[in-house]
Amino acid sequence: MAAEYEEPDMGDIQRRMEGALTALKHEFLSLRTGRASASMVEPVMVDAYGTSTPINQIGTVNVPESRMIAINIWDKSLVSKAEKAIRESGLGINPVVDGTIIRLPIPELNEERRRELTKVASQYAEHARVAVRNVRRDGMDALKKAKSNGMPEDDQKIWTDEIQAATDKGIAAVDAALEHKQAEIMQV
Q: pLDDT digit string (tens) for 92-139?
């Protein structure tokens, strides 16, 4: 008699857990560490031509030096809108306009701001851990369904261990990324 149950798709489970880590690393890029990075301005949206547009789609973003971001806005009529969007973005950076170029000098982070950023990084990491655990829960639910469809208990134990191992690996990767980011933030 052929088995009627369906085994969990470990490839899908691992892909989704890795997706949580990728999303976390992308969120970490938006955290300011005292060094300039073009990814810092990625979340900034400018009202261009009646549409909310990412700033990197209305100009060229460069990092000419370690504490400066320069954005060369292609359309002169959008310079003031871009400047306004940067001021209102919550980046805590005062833009300096020079013709069509907007310069963003990155100030040195003080101790208090560094501590705040490490807390924000911890929150991002916790969201990623929750995402990994949600994937684990989905895998365990699939196992319960397979058990009710006739999966032998030995197979269920093997799959449970495999899903748990993937979860542990995912959580460890999130923790390692957080530790690295916090060290980067606290570095003076």
A: 788 999 999 999 998 777 888 788 888 888 999 999 999 999 999 999
Per DSSP, helices labelled H in the chain are 10-29, 79-88, 111-148, 153-186
As given in the structure block, the two tokens for residue 135 are 């994937």
The type of residue at 46 is: V
* CATH for the 10-28+110-186 domain, from 1.20.1250.20, 3.30.450.20, 1.10.132.20, 2.40.50.140: 1.10.132.20
Q: How many other CB atoms sit within 10 Å of the CB of residue 151?
A: 20
Q: Decide if 185 contacts 117 (C-beta within 8 A).
A: yes
Distance between CA 135 and CA 13 in Å, rounded? 6
Query: Is the pTM above the cut of 0.85?
Result: no
Distances, alpha carbon 29 to alpha carbons 68, 158, 179, in Å: 16, 37, 14
What does the block give as tokens for 180? 């690295």
